[in-house]
Amino acid sequence: MAHCCTGSWRAPVYFTVSVILAFIAISTSMHSKTEQPSSPTKLNFHELSLNASKALRKAGFNVMATLLQVSPEIFLSSPNSTIFAIQDDAISNSSLPPWLLRNLLQYHTSPLNLPMKDLLKKPRGSCLPTLHRQKNIAITNIDFKETTVDINNVSVTHPDVFLAETISVHGVLEPFSSLDPEDVHQGWNSIQAPTCNAMSVLVSDAVKSTNMVEWSWIVRLLSSNGFVPFAIGLNSVLEEILKDYKGLNSVTIFAPPNLQSLTSPSPLLKRTVWFHILPQRLTYKELTALPAGTLLMTLVRDLSLEVAGTAGFKGGLIINGIEIVAPDIFTSKKFTVHGISRAFEVADQVAAIVSKWSETRITQVAHICKGCKQALGPKQVKGNSKTTPVLEVILIRTTLFKN
């Protein structure tokens, strides 16, 4: 009876995979270079894929074995490869379009040959390249006693399924990226990857917490849709956002077409970019429902944005004097991006603060600026007018760059 049941689920799975493979194989052959059938390179290529496929099938990875056998170009497009094979159930139970399945398979393939002994030598937090659009996977845990490795918090359950001079194949418990059906329907590449720095070290384990904001995805969306300066600015301060806002699970971003402070010192650039981000997700409909005068908290803790209503009958919503000209250009469950006509001016906020302070006596400033009395002495604090600008500058600088 068990044998009968096993065969019953395999038939529809293989039929589905065959249909998908037909599409993938055709698209792959259209972009691949033709070689002579008798060339040693091609013979070795197919022999390698066939042997790896047999090893996968023997280990119980039937779907991946079929995929590798029919379309080896997906996995073996680089001189060296490490394939992380996904369990049958994870693929057969998914309803991914062919293009996304191809992306997922390439995300599970690294252009490095890494047998288990080499994976164990990597430091925890090491990022590894994949064949998919420069997205990385990351080693999130290593247990030397049990000789186990977790990648993107997924266990490598079947190490060294197949080893050769240029290829290693391992089996993993589940896919390295959970795919959001809502994002897939919108036609986006919803494979979520951890964020790594220029030294290939893990900065944010975006896969571990599925409710985290997909920052790397946001940066790519901005870059490819006309918001390159802001994308560059966001990427440059991303590490600090991840450090200071570890529990952040949703954001609203107001993206300007240009960013003059891109060449400014890093504290000002950081403050400018953060001033365009709200630590909550607000769609355009939700923003327009807010009454005029509503203050919106930004990532800059001492500065807020103000809702001022719409600009005329057909105008967009005005935030801090700037019009939203492209509402909801990118949306997901965790973020919304609105295009604005130009960048918010942080200098305007500073001017407002200075104006408020100009009406404040030196004793009040000293009370706010902790330690100023001890530093300047009671006589200077009480009535020395020459000291007033000094204290105000101290307070301004403290406020501006404390974030």
UniProtKB/TrEMBL annotation:
Q: Which Gene3D superfamilies match?
A: FAS1 domain
Regions crossing the membrane: 12-30
**Superkingdom assignment:** Eukaryota
Keywords annotated in UniProt = Membrane, Transmembrane, Transmembrane helix
Q: Where is the signal peptide?
A: none
The segment(s) forming the FAS1 domain are 82-179, 252-347
Q: What is this protein called?
A: FAS1 domain-containing protein
Q: Does the keyword Hydrolase apply?
A: no
Under SUPFAM superfamilies, the record lists:
FAS1 domain
What InterPro entries does the database record attribute to this sequence? FAS1_dom_sf, FAS1_domain, Fasciclin-like_AGP
Q: Which family does it belong to?
A: Belongs to the fasciclin-like AGP family.
In the UniProt record, does the keyword Glycoprotein occur? no
